[in-house]
């Protein structure tokens, strides 16, 4: 019985660490769906410890698989009755949990698919009114953060292109200055919850 309880605790710990490891990327998507975009950057503090959480999840689930698959010695009592394990103690359940944990740990790799491709690529901008801004932004930790900022800015009129980069901690925006103002772009980025450190005009 104790072994079963310990196994359940290990699996739970593995899933929780996988969820926490991906929370910095899942929260922006959930906040977009919920309409509470300001929550997007609330789990950015997780990013520095993300590798450790992933390692913990892999170790815990790996040990759970070892416990599940190792050869078990048969009891000496020939009359002992084998008890049918609950579903939560089965290999099938452990497999489902493992697949879910892997999906959570790799979430940053496919997070952008949750954002609609709403780039204003067909808008015509007079070269005399074309402006390019580069914002330095704090709080982005993965592709999900990039997609969140790009999605928010692309809602504005006159946006020609938005390229956000969490690695560069910036966003470069091309826009028609006669249709959209700096204040509107700053406000759109602000709604995502990420902090603008500075900005400069490229043109």
> Helix segment count?
6
Rg estimate, integer Å: 24 Å
* Element-level helix/strand string: HHHHEHEEHE
Sequence stretches where pLDDT stays below 50 over 5 or more residues: none
User: Helicity, in percent?
Assistant: 40-55%
Q: Give the terminus-to-terminus CA distance.
A: 69 Å
Q: Number of folding domains?
A: 2
Mean pLDDT reading: 78
Query: Which geometry do the CA atoms define?
Result: elongated
Counting DSSP E segments of at least 2 residues, the number of strands comes to 4
**How much strand?**
5-15%
Alpha-beta content class: alpha+beta
List the helices and strands and how they pair.
Layout (H helix, E strand, L loop, with lengths): L1 H33 L15 H20 L21 H15 L1 H4 L19 E9 L4 H12 L4 E7 L4 E7 L5 H10 L3 E7 L2
Antiparallel strand pairs: 1-3, 1-4, 2-3
Helix pairs in contact: 1-2, 1-3, 1-5, 2-3
Quick recap:
By secondary structure, the protein is of the alpha+beta class. It contains 6 helices and 4 strands.
């Amino acid at each position: 019985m104790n072994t079963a309880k310990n196994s359940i605790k290990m699996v739970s710990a593995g899933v929780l660490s996988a969820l926490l490891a991906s929370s910095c990327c899942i929260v922006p998507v959930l906040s977009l769906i919920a309409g509470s975009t300001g929550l997007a950057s609330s789990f950015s503090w997780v990013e520095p410890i993300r590798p450790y959480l992933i390692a913990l999840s892999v170790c815990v689930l790996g040990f759970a698989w070892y416990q599940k698959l190792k050869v078990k010695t048969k009891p000496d009592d020939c009359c002992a009755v084998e008890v049918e394990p609950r579903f939560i103690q089965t290999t099938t359940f452990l497999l489902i949990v493992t697949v879910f944990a892997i999906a959570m740990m790799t979430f940053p790799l496919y997070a952008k698919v949750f954002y609609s491709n709403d780039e204003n690529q067909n808008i015509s901008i007079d070269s005399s009114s074309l402006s390019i801004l580069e914002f330095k932004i704090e709080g982005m930790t993965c592709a999900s953060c990039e997609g969140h900022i790009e999605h928010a800015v692309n809602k504005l009129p006159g946006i020609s292109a938005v390229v956000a980069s969490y690695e560069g901690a910036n966003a470069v925006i091309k826009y028609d200055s006669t249709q959209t103002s700096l204040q509107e772009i700053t406000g759109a980025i602000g709604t995502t919850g990420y902090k603008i450190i500075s900005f400069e005009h490229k043109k």
